[in-house]
Amino acid sequence: MRSTISEHHALNSADFKAEAVQSENAAQAVTGCTGSTITPKCLSNLYSYTSATAYSNGLMGIAGFLKQWPFKTDLTTFMKSYATQGNAAQSFTCTLINGGTCPQTGTPGIEANLDVQYARAITESIPNVYYSVGGSPPWLGTGTNTNEPYLEFLNYLLALDASALPNTISISYGDDEDTVPLDYATNVCNLFAQLGARGVSVLVASGDSGVGTTCKSGTKKTFTTSFPASCPWVTTVGGTTGNSPEGAWSGSGGGFSSRFGQPSYQTAAVNKWLTTDTTHTAVNAYFNKSGRAYPDIAAQSTNFVIVASGSAQGVSGTSCACPTFASIIQLLNSDRLLAGRKPLGFLNPWLYNNATAGLTDIKTGKNTGCSGVISGAGFSAVAVSERFSCHVCFVDVQQGWDPATGLGTPIYTSLLAISKTT
User: Is 319 a catalytic residue?
Assistant: First the structure.
């Protein structure tokens, strides 16, 4: 699937007007979120990192594959126009892996520019590195191989000294799970686990096809899952749209792996959804209830403003959500390092067991997919109700995981407070 950009288009002045219609008709009422576009100013208010410390320690990593290159000139233009954290002069470095390149002439990669521009805008003055990885992996398919060489990327990182490792990595790429050989997927997933154990938080976009497009495995109708989003040892980021309230984006990748079993850290949350949610009953036959469930979390995914070849463009996809959430995690990791503590590393046990109070549960919208193959395909973003007694009353708590937006979107100030005590 090459990258997790759903679409991109040129922008004009009407896109920035307050009266413009928000993508997918979702309402908006957050400071800085005017018109139909998303900018760093909007995100900083929506996700409450406007007053984040001006960190300059740690290292933020952005993965790049398949000849996607960011341009520093475009980043400079973007930061001059949209930076909100007093870091407009900051840039990035390129690290070349397995024959990767990082030219600064020709045509920039839309994916690469998006990832770098939003990571750079959010991560204060923390050093950013773009890993340009060359080559192609084995695959199961016909035509052109557009899968990514994760193995070479991970082997390179795992050979680094601890001091040279990034604290956080954003990966905005993914492939249909069925196109990745099982032994290759297993090996790559195990290496992601090793990276997490060494203190690196790895975040991966969930994909832009909802529950799938072809929705067949052989002759069997089934929701289609994405790799490495389906690996249990990465943190998978789904998509939202609008902001008053945020709702699930229809393209947000979500579902249950057909290859990887459900890890223990999410069993309780997923079982609660399986047993209390009634919106998925009609599609029970099309997903593996015992598989690794994703996404884990979510963030904005529609109409992000970027600069490419000097001009403003709008981009949509979970490629927008992934660097956004990953950059907020890097702020937490830099804070921990500054206090002499270890970075968060593999996030999921912490997210499911400690950090739900630092997330906004998404309760509206639905991801879709399988057009013409499976009627009513998709999963709704829902509130999972649980009733607690309190002597003289009953309290209904409506917050939980679902396969459209996971546990929800970030509240930086709350996540920071939780991180300081866990």
Answer: yes
